[in-house]
Amino acid sequence: MADPCSILGLTGPAEQVVRLIASLIARHQAYKKNKTLSTEMLTAYTNLQRDITELEKMPIHGTSSQHTGLLRREIADISSFILKSFAELQKESKDPKARLGAFASAMGDREVLEKRKQEADRLHKRIVQASTGIDTRTAVESIRRGTGNMFRASIRAEHNPASICVKLDSRGSDGLPNTCESRLKAAVLRRDRNKQVGATAVGQGGVGKTCALRAIAHDVEIMAEFSGGVYFMLLGKDGNVGRLIEELCLIVEASGGNQTAVEMREQSEFERVLAKVQAWFCSHVCLFIIDDVWVVNDIDANILQKLSVLAETAGGSGGRRSRLLYSTRDKELRQIGERVAFEPREKVGKEAVEMLVHASEANGEEVDDVRCKEAVGEILKMCGGLPLALNVAGTSVRYVRERWEGEVSEAWGAYLSKMKSRNTIRGESPKDGYSSLDGTLHTSLDILEADVGRSGETVGEFSFRKMHRSLCVMKKQDRIPLSLVGDLWEMDEERTERCSKEMERVGLVEVQYEKDCGGLRVHDLTHDFAVEEAKKKEGVEEWYKKMADVCRAGEGLLAMSEDRDGEGKSAREEYVFENIYRVLQQGGCVEDLKRLFLSARWVKTVMRRGGVWQYEKAVKGLSRDLKGKRGSGKVGMGRADEDAVDGMVLMMRAARLSVPFCGENSAGIYFQLYGRVKHKARDSSCVRKMLEEIERYAPRPWVRPVSECVARADGKMVEQIVLPYFSTEIQVGMDSSGEVYGCQVARLPAEVTVIVFTQSAEKETKMVELEGEFETESQGPGANERSSQLEGEFETESQGPGDLEASRRKMCRRLRAYFGMCFGSVTSEVTGENPSVAAENPSVTRATCATLCKRKENVVVGYEDGTLRLWSTSGKKVLRSFHGHRSRVHCVAMSGDGKRVVSGSFDKSVRVWDVETGAQVGEAFVGHTDRVYSVAMSGDGRRVVSGSNDKSVRVWDVETGAQVGEALVGHTGSVDSVAMSGDGRRVVSGSEDMSVRVWDVETGAQVGEALVGHTGEVWSVAMSGDGRRVVSGSEDKSVRVWDVETGAQVGEALVGHTGWVCSVAMSGDGRRVVSGSYDGSVRVWDVETGAQVGEALVGHTGSVDSVAMSGDGRRVVSGSEDMSVRVWDVETGAQVGEALVGHTEGVLSVAMSGDGRRVVSGSEDMSVRVWDVETGAQVGEALVGHTDYVCSVAMSGDGRRVVSGSYNRNVRVWDVERGITLHTGWEEDWEEIVARFLNMADFDTASRAGRRSEIFLREFAKEGRIVQLREDGSEAVLAQLDDPRDLQIDHDHGVAVAGVGNLVAIMKVVV
Fold this sequence. Notes:
Radius of gyration: 36 Å
Shape: globular
Strand content: 15-25%
Number of helices: 37
């Protein structure tokens, strides 16, 4: 959340100040004596605290710079006052019997309290004045910028046609609602606990649900009750999640959230879209209506539960509240809330008569006329009380009446005669088990045909029957633009509109206008009728083929991929984009689909329009069909077809993986797609064509990947979830359905927060944020032993000088990975007084670890003070607390059934808890001689395993509390991670010694040899359900899978994370793995994926920490944690010569001479080395003299002099030829030293600086982007990398380079 005015950091202190004052009024003598004044002072502070909380919720990020400056000044004053008050009140609370002490030296207690009250009142008025009109100012600024993000209540719902009769206020003699419509309205207005109201009719269509919902949307009482607006959404039997997302975007737009809607369309996960909708409507009382909900396509049975969050946007007990109103006739849907059943009316009852007469526009006298009364009765019986049939019959009667030349009352008999002459009324309609509309619909068509003097087909022209049959290509509940209908009917615009309105007059279609664009809509049952009639004549497939021709007409489908305004956003184009897959598939246009799916321009358009889900589903469907035909032997699939299928799937996966890194800018999308498929170009003609298409159509400038820059689309990584924070602990899990879940404990500078996330097998991601800080509940023994994680790392026991130095180096690496800063500055913060830590309230405890149960409804969080808390993820509240540990809880785990929790602590104990009662199960498990770093539990919760800093693994019997066998020893470093097989018979452990070991619990023996391969500490391990496979995650940023029986690694290491892998989990069958990393991402891997086809991925085996370019822009040098230095050719991306090896620790910094012939590198081994690029040989001996890691190097143009800097801030100048130090200095003089000894004029830096107006580099903490600054001041993202290091641009030569994980990303800027 953007916080330009630092408001978030004030909410906590303000709340604590209010609590302190309330406490002091009851305890402190000075407050007791002046109780009235004290109470007034409390009120003043409470008002101020409320102001801050309300201000936090306002969209301050959208205000003008002038207004933001005003707010900053006011908030700065408040901050000073609040923090000062907090310090004073804390001191006063420590001695409740004392006077106010030093604060009252110049004035009495009362004067001090009065002054505080007045100051709080003054600031309250100032902040109210400053915040007044923020929404208005934001709106003005947003509208000026073209975003229009200002909330305005709206009624987004279509009106019923005039022929529809809906009585929402009908009452019986008892005064109660006596129709389903009136009962539905009463339920919506009722102020009770129900957040949802449903209009239901299982299996029954045409009973008036939609008409009732539309009428409710425009009802005066409803609009008055729901002041935030009424928002109607339509799904239908052909609906899917993509359509639902678009409907949600449209209601946000209708209420003024244009910018929010844009952000929603950029999301690929439904849950994130829903969260944005909830946040947008959060403070408004609204009625959300969703019509015709079905469990179909990717919409599951629990969709209404998910949508219920909309009803939580506003309201409270006894007051006005938002509501969700839905309709459905799907018995598979899990219905919720109060339900009102809709059903056919009594055949000749009052309601049926009113509906028929209202639609016919006849008066009472006419209907009561003896000449038509009998006809009316028979028509009512034939309609069977079905509201839809009654409306069609009534509108047709009206049509006949308007043209009747004789006595108007006789028109009823004429209509009845036509209806009887058809004699086509069936007992049941297709699939519905419900009275058919065939008779009334056929009669309507007969009337139209007769009216124009024709009956049946007319050669060379479209009859009304043929026009209606053509509507079989529509999607149910969809609206098709008249421009497309006209092309389908082969008519001009005027005639199309005239014919459509004629069909509307007899109840066959509904003509609607939106933004001056006309469209047709038909009822579901009327659509069924059109489909059945089409099957009898031309065939449905023929109509779809004709529709495909219509969609391709003009400039073709790919014309939609062009970046156009106005016409490019037309209703026609939107309809084609949303329906083209269905139309081509139903029309049997397989080749057209293949061409579309293999077009990079089309895929770019899909991503820009937020249609990746629909695209992915369509690609999978076509691939399945093609492979199925090959498998059945009916149609052979040649090499070209196989290449096409592989290409489609590759591009689909590329699009899916690129979504988190792409906005709407075409250049940025093309960068992602190109980079993820280019490695297959040599083997696939389809891929080569896609790359050529991108190179031809990418807008200029664009960034072309030369080397590997992003993850390959056909790699083992199949999914990536980007979490809100990085450099934080993550715990992950995976259930039997493939759903990924976990927790992230984010320890931020100002707060700690816990993120609980789940991602379903359908890729819907949901995140819940929980508080990470609490007031300490008790101060028992050891409660003050809390120490930060960093402080804990420095504690050593029985260590010699060598161990201390090794520990120091290890700590330095960790600090650099955590904070990305030099050792010297970190040391000062760790050993000195950190202002943020010093100001921290000692009565507040912070979250340290968390675990989510497999059922995802509860999460257990451990805290610094030794407590644990059980949270409800749905209610976002604490259910109970667990007390027993005397120091920080470092690790938690949960049994498979979620009934028990195990925790490990810095107090060296392991404890098991009953989740239902909060009670500890038995005594604490004591045996470890040092801190407990990891715990796990068997599936049935009967056994526990723990790993410790004492280098041992121990297994415990929960029921007896006894240790099972002896401690499992063999690791030579702390045991950072443990896991257990489902039956508790095997244990796996990962250690600081970089090994993974598997143990037999019964015998206490190690199973096979240690599993070695990681080059860093093993932070996490997991085991498959049968104990046959193990997965491990490491400080080396890799994930590895092992076969327990053979001890062999399964496949290659899974690489891609750019931070330490802190958590792993495995599916029950061991085929899929999920990992969480300090890089802030969760990744899902397919272990079974075969070897990648395409160009081999060569290069570094460790993280790339530093890159540099030659002066001519033709070569790049990189240094890595794998201790090697490599040189690359910019044009080809190929490695030049062999790796330059000689360093004994990771390479932190590199530089290159102007001509690219020499390279210099600095390392963790504290040495500087110079290399000859052509020969690969080291020039002379290593340059030694630094006493700390060498973190920066520079080289003269001729490569004869080098400047190096180390983490202890020492700078040295070297003569390369003689291998001697010419000069020593300090970091603050770096620029002066470089200019003096390296003659920086050789680098021609002026020419580079002069070109930064066109393209410039912008680096963020979590993402790296190459951004184009346009002439109008806007920005376009040309390339976005996944957590790059040392991202650089050579503007003279149009080259960009960065380290991304193990890759050296080389990019060319194409102008």
